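Handoff note, outgoing to incoming analyst
You'll be picking up this chain. Sequence as last confirmed:
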Amino acid sequence: MKITTIGRGNIGGGLARLWEQAGHDVTTLGSEGGDASDADVVLVSVPSNSVSEALGKVTGLEGKIAIDTANAFAGRNEEYESFAHEVKAHTNGPVAKAFNANFATLYDQIGEQRVRPSCLYAADDEAREVAEQLIRDAGYDPVSAGGLENARALEDFVPGLFAKIGQVFYRFAPPGEL
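Most recent structure output, in case you need it:
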């Protein structure tokens, strides 16, 4: 896949590295913006209070599948139901919410785990297959939280729980799969 990451920080840069190792063609864009016309999918990995500003500096987003990683640590634009919905307003394409509940500082340790850790995601139907593939290619097992209408629940989950317990891998699985 051709992937453009918007954001080169811990999450955007870390996922870019994992996806390159998995054989994807990855372009990273920073705060200066750029062109995503060649991308099959874009990852939006910028501070939550700068989603609209960052996407305003990128051309070629129209109709693209996008994956949003934001959490509300830096504020939220309440005009939108979730950060994923804010991304969707700029791309007019299918969106998934993923990687917001995984700690980028642990990316280098994914492969050392006895079992693949989980990655919770919520997605439009048209973004589901791509999101699941990129979650697997980053070393995680995808766990669906349903449609994009559940993106805000994933955003609220992180400060509500993970901010209290610290950096962990986690595993969600139906009975009989552990």
